[in-house]
Amino acid sequence: MKEMIYQTVCPGCNMGCGLYIRENDEGTVAIDFMKSSPANLGKLCRFGMQLPHHYSKATSMVDGVESSIDDAIQAASTKLKGAKDVAMLSVGATTSEEHLAFTKVADALGTVVNTGMGTYAELPPECHATVGHGIPLEDVEQASKIALFIDPYTQYPLIVRRLLAAKRSGASIIAVGPKEIKLADETKHIGPDQYESELGLDSESLIIADVHPHSDPEHVKHLLNLALMTGARIMFMKPFVDSTGVHLLSRGTGQKGLQEIMDGINEGSIKTLVTLDSDPIELMPNGVEDILKKLDNLVVISSRNSPVTRLAQIVIGTEPLYAKAGSFMNVEGQMLKNSGSSSIGIDALSTLAQNLGGKAFDCQGLHTQVLENVVKEYTGPKYKKLSCEMMETAPEEGKGNLINVYNPFMWFDQPDDNDFVMVNMNTVKSLGLRKGGMIALTSNGGTLKIRYAVAEVPDGLMLTNKKLPITTGTCTVVTAEGC
Amino acid sequence: MTEQETNTENTQKEEPRIGVFICECGVNIAGAVDCNAVADYIGTLPNVTTAVVNKYTCSDAGQEEIKHAIKDLNLNRVLVASCTPKTHEPIFRACVEEAGLNQYLFEFVNIREHCSWIHMWEKEDATHKAKELVRMGVARAALLEPLQSNEVPVTNKALVIGAGVTGMQAALDIGDMGFQVYLVEQGPSIGGKMAQLDKTFPTNDCSICILGPKMVEVARNKNIEIMSYSEVTEVDGYVGNFKVKVKHKPRYLNIEDCSGCGLCTEKCPIEVPYTEFNEGIGTRKAIYVPFPQAVPLRALVDKSVCIDCGACIKACERGAIDMEQQETFSELDVGVIVVAAGYDVYNPEPKHEYGFGLYDNVITTMEFERLINASGPTMGKVVRPSDVQPPKRIGFVQCVGSRDKNSNIYCSSFCCMASLKNAQLIKEKYPDTEVYIMYMDMRTPFRMYEEFYNRARDSGIKFIRGKPAEVTETQDKNIIARVEDTLTGEIVNLELDMMVLSVGAVAPESTETVRQILKVSKAADGFMMEAHPKLKPVDTTLDGIFIGGMTQGPKDIPYSISQGSACAARATRFLAQGKAMTEGITAVVDDDICVTCGVCVPMCPFQALSMEDEKLKIISALCKGCGTCMAACPTGALQQSHFKNEQLLAQVKNVFAYGEV
Amino acid sequence: MVEKEWEPKIVAFCCNWCSYGGADTAGMGRFQQPASTRVIRVMCSGRIDPLHVFNAFLEGADAVLVTGCHIGDCHYVNGNEKTEVRYKFLEDMLQQLGLEPERLHLNWISASEGERFAHFIRDVTAKVKELGPSPLKPAGVS
Amino acid sequence: MVAVGDMLVGYATDGGVRKRGASGGLVTAVLAAALEKGLVENVVVMKHINEFEAVPIITDDVEVVLASTGSLHSVPVNLAKYAVGRKVAMPAKPCDAQAVIEQAKRGMIDLDNTYVVGLNCGGSMHPVTTKKMLVEMYDIDPEDVIGEEIEKGKLIFKTKDGNEKGIAIDELEEAGFGRRDSCRYCTIKIPVNADLACGNWGVIGDLAGSATFCQVMNDKGVRLLENAIEAGRIEVQPASEKAIAIREKVNTAMVNLGNTLEGKILTEIPDEARIQYYLDQMANCIDCGACKEVCPVCACGEDSKCTMFHSLVDDYSMSMYHLVRLLHLSDSCIACGQCSDVCPSDIPITILQSRFAIPAQRKREYTPGMNVDETPPFFEVILK
């Protein structure tokens, strides 16, 4: 009986939760708790506990036929050589080293790697450091007042204990958002224009929000202004294991948003898409499969099978994330290392880069370059007050807004016990919903019958933690009926 | 896949279409519950295809309506809200089956006993409650699954364990009904304890005179195969399909060749100072016939004393004797089992105060029975053991080992009458003898028993209400019983020539072995336990296994024989039908969830659960569907069909609603 | 309209052979009871899983009754003995949880004891009414 | 040679093992011998990650066993589940041994195939807490630590530069450091439920620090020791009266402390405040299920009653999952602290469990994990 033990980091978000992966000789994967991991003390959230289901062995494919990885690399090289209108996407769901390697392939192709974070492009560059780089998680526990713009329980569960610790040392917590947050002293359903006056923040305060591929840049600007005006520190949580790393490695280059890329494909300005551990079908709310089919070339480099690997002409299947040699940078800017020593992914990218006329590279060399990009300190706002538009929040008369609360299960479209929407008791009563029954929701994307849970949310709002087939974006206008 | 299974699958996949029938029961329900309002509300619930009100749903018209609705509306679930399932569930189950719906897809809601009748003057509350009760039922009905109560074929043979009077009666009755019976007896002859008795109360007929013919009848009955000197060693299976292993102990002669002539016995040089049949009194030979009326009338060799001289082999004209005989085994397939394994008399040795085993002239009732029996060791002459002289003063002590918290707390029920009988027999034979009965209470129920007691009183027998506190022996071996007559408060020192201990009955060790082989439950008194003390007095909790006579507890001969017949009747039901129905509601296990921790196994009183090859095995023929194992199961892998957690929780959840109904 | 007095909601688990019969007998005898109780039938009280009791409380029950045959009368040899073993755990647990002991009851009621059943329901309802709604009852549920 | 009930002092014959191993390397040598002589197929050993963490691995390599040494003070992992389905020898704290027995009661572990070498345990510490404590209380850089020891109620750390510093455990715990809560009120300090009960309590005189006290608890213990002696891996000698008395004295002191702390940690909550207390404690549960996954007593698989009837869609005031688990474990919780350790919301689950389990177990005069023949009281057929 042989068992491999890997020290790795949870790919669920950018918290940087350490864990062990045990892999036995039959390939069965189990998690174990890495209690000395400073970010999480070995603790894992709902998503982390499901990781054995998340990892899956990626298969290399050429034109829908299983192939060796070498053949897939060769096929990709042929396809990409001289390809025009190429877009490359890596959102940060793999190691910094692989991302860096991917940028070298981009160099060879004369393009850049997009991280899918359109928000950055909308912000003046002097804001990027503030958005892209968090603060030590320990500091959360020291804040005297915290304004919470996330749902910690479902979105970034490992921050719950930090918030509770802050609360124990006397912090007051105000949640701002559609859903009642249990650990908050108060939950406010207020618009950006009221943030400054209603929240009462000062320099001892901390703003916790998040930024992800579907973030509204206008809202991010409001939050940046709030931090600037009140002197509060601000930290943005992020959705992918190396979100902070890829931001640092690709800053100043392409940070084209996911939507923008999809639009580009749709309009025909992008003919070739190369992805690194980034599946647009999982990442986008809905309906991108048809858009992806418009591509001339879809080359996927991935450590796990996902919907896009079934659609791609070429799949370069690499080793599972936990086995890779490499590192990640978490939201605190901490460099976290995998104990694994496999370099299948990097070697593949190296071959690809060479085939495309670039230089060879190796893991160690890439790691050294990654280290150069680490930012040690949080430096505070270096920007001036941003002008931003007011946001329209109220739904039309007789309609409701169905809001996606992005969480790891949603990003990877993993099954969970979350196929329901949250509505408030007024909605239940006015629609005459039956206890234990369903609600029917209709949007432009179709009609769906789904279970519902009663939650304290404002009238007209519905929340969901699951990627639903009828959603058309982060916020979908729906009409609801009892059934 | 059989057609039935296909149907099952279809029903599970189909969207539930529930027909709800609300009964007014004349004014019994409608008097307090607004049935139309209930139907209106229920009609709005999901999965409900129709909700109607009937005057009397159980009437022919009502049942016809259900059947039509099943066909016309393609219903796949039916719910009736009316009275109690305890009386009407079978009627409606049959009704839906007739319309082609599995009977387990029927759900019953009680809105009469549990609603209209107990909220007679709060019509609003009653109506509201009725709505909720039916809502709960609808939620459960939607989750019901079709079940099959399986038919198992029944081997049309019976096994009767124990050939005392109870077992013989059971065997005869089953045999007479035309079914083959194996009658297994551990002793060398059938007849049991009754064969040893002298007379029987209250008629005082000679015991063997009435039993003997019955024994012969058993032997002659073509359907009965007697297996004497044999023991049941293994039993496997379940109702209709028991596999039984029987051990035949060696008699050291071929039973087919022996005629029971007794020539061998005559020639045998070994005189054994102990006779089993005579309770140890008297002598027998190393090769012997148990008693003159024995059935089968065959000899057997007591190998423990035999010196292998060969005299008997020479004497036997038929060459029946085989000193090399080994024990053999038979394997029987039977459908039902009757246990009539009898009892032991209480051994009074631990009761030192009575001096049994210490003083020669203290004997037990059973020894007395053999002493006074004309074919007994003394040819019916009552003598006392110490000097073989007729006793002039005899005392009986009642409740020895019975109604006594130091030995057995139960009443052995036959001993009062036995002593009354024996006392009278003495008075008849030796009118000059002084006879005393020392007792706590005389218990003489049933026909002619009390009269028998009165006759005893009239015959000059002296009754002392009190039990000896101390018994001593004089130099000439007389017995002094120091006893308080609690009616007079007087303490007397009664000098007796002989004292008879009226010992009670206990469950013998051999019965305990059989009980464990069969896995029948044991009652607190050590005897086997019936399924229900009143309603199922000879059934056990195990289908197809019945208990009668002393095996079930102390009783007298008429009661034992009645139970023998009762066992036969109960058992033959299965044989006559040729099939047994297993419970449709049983334990079921989801092997994907079960971790085979085994905590459920000891929960089952019916031995339906076992762990085999790292898997939980459920013998559904043994499962009675009580559901007590599931509550112990930590994983929830074990479920009770028809009462699954989901089904019960659906009811719980639907007790409550958002807002007004 | 006069505000209706609050009525507790009680979930009663009854075994098929005894206590369900007891409830029937109460009806046959017309022993009037408050309309607080909803009976759920199981074959044996031993089927009642603590899980069901928890769920009843979490759904909004103000009290839960576990009922079965008298000890020694179980239709399934010793189902109710097992009920008793588990009930004691449940009782200890809810006590530690801080739920008032009046909200959970174990009672053995034979099929003939209709009046006893009715009396039991009246008694528990009155006690629970005094206590008020269960602290575990979710908002908006009735 | 060796008999059940023997009280011995022993050490590894191999100088290297003796020196490297805590207290004379007896345990390591016994485990190695068990593997080497085919008594078992695998050994559970602790793979060193850093001074503050080791992770259990299963090995069939004697060299790996011999190389694995080190203190268990800051390795709060329960090992029982690693023995499931294997023929294995393992070191075990009392709570590991308890869990092994509870798993055996549920048919998951065959005790005949499982050799449990018990280690005295005064409690263990969480690695991150320990690091923080080193900085805040000891003024030591965690990277400099090379060893630790508990002596006379003090926790002593040795550093690279050869220095050591000790602080009274009481003082550390007052400051919120030191042992994990559940270790503080634990009262099973000597693993009398294991096959061998080993430890350094009662090792006195010249042998102090280089030998292990070992009590032989059962036939398997005899086999383990005789096997190791035959293999030439250990030497043992009878423990002196004085040694036995000292060991008992240390144990008594530790148990008494545990009893005292139980009252302090599991503080009485008035009847009327309890329900709010539990509601508050469970309010932040994120339904990750880690406490179930890590529980060494529970033998259920991924789906079980606690999860199957718990749904995120329910708007219950309290978690169905936790209620089912509180009951499920109230007869069998050994308060090993694993669930608290892994809770992402820092819910003190072990303490919550103990509030239910300790009274329930005391009432029934039952201690889980001590005797495989004792049925967990929830599974009794008839009320005792």
Please name the defining characteristics of this protein.
heterotetramer, B: alpha/beta, Rossmann fold, FAD/NAD(P)-binding domain, 4 domains, 5-stranded parallel β-sheet, 27% helix, C: alpha/beta, 4-stranded parallel β-sheet, 4 helices, 16% strand
What does the model show?
The complex is a heterotetramer of chains A (483), B (661), C (142) and D (384). In chain A, 31% of the residues lie in helices and 23% in strands. Chain A is α/β, with parallel strands linked by helices and 483 residues long. Among the domains of chain A are: 56-116 and 256-375, Rossmann fold (3-Layer(aba) Sandwich), CATH 3.40.50; 402-482, Barwin-like endoglucanases. In chain A, helix 3 (69-80) packs parallel to helix 16 (344-355) and helix 4 (96-109) runs parallel beside helix 16. In chain C, strand 1, helix 1 and strand 2 form a beta-alpha-beta unit. Chain C contains four helices and four strands, in the order E-H-E-H-E-H-E-H. In chain D, strands 3-2-4-5-9-10-1-11 form an eight-stranded mixed beta sheet. A three-stranded antiparallel beta sheet of chain D has the order 6-7-8. Chain D folds into three domains: 7-124 and 185-257, no CATH class; 127-178, Roll (Nuclear Transport Factor 2, Chain: A), CATH 3.10.450; 266-379, Fumarate Reductase Iron-sulfur Protein, Chain B, domain 2. The model of chain D has no long low-confidence stretch (mean pLDDT 92). Chain D is an alpha/beta fold. The longest helix of chain D is centred in the middle third of the chain and has 25 residues, at 241-265. The chains are: A alpha/beta (483), B alpha/beta (661), C alpha/beta (142), D alpha/beta (384). Chains in contact: A-B, A-C, A-D, B-C, B-D, C-D. The interface between A and C is small, with 4 and 4 residues.
Mean pLDDT of chain B: 93
| Relevant CATH superfamily of the largest domain in chain B | FAD/NAD(P)-binding domain
Look at the structure and give the CATH class of the domain at 56-116 and 256-375 in chain A.
Answer: Alpha Beta
- Please write the CATH class name of the largest domain in chain B: Alpha Beta
Q: What coarse outline of chain B follows from CA principal-axis ratios?
A: elongated
Q: What characteristic shape of chain A results from the CA principal axes?
A: globular
How many E-type strands of chain B?
A: 34
Number of strands of chain A: 23
Number of helices of chain A: 19
Structural class of chain B: alpha/beta
Average pLDDT of chain A, rounded to a whole number, is 92
Q: Radius of gyration of chain A, rounded?
A: 22 Å
Strand order of the largest sheet of chain B: 10-7-6-18-29
CA(first)-CA(last) distance of chain A = 54 Å
- The proportion of residues in beta strands of chain B is 15-25%
How many H/I helices of chain B?
16
Q: How many structural domains can be distinguished in the coordinates of chain B?
A: 4
Helix content of chain B: 25-40%
Q: List unreliable stretches of 5+ residues of chain A.
A: none
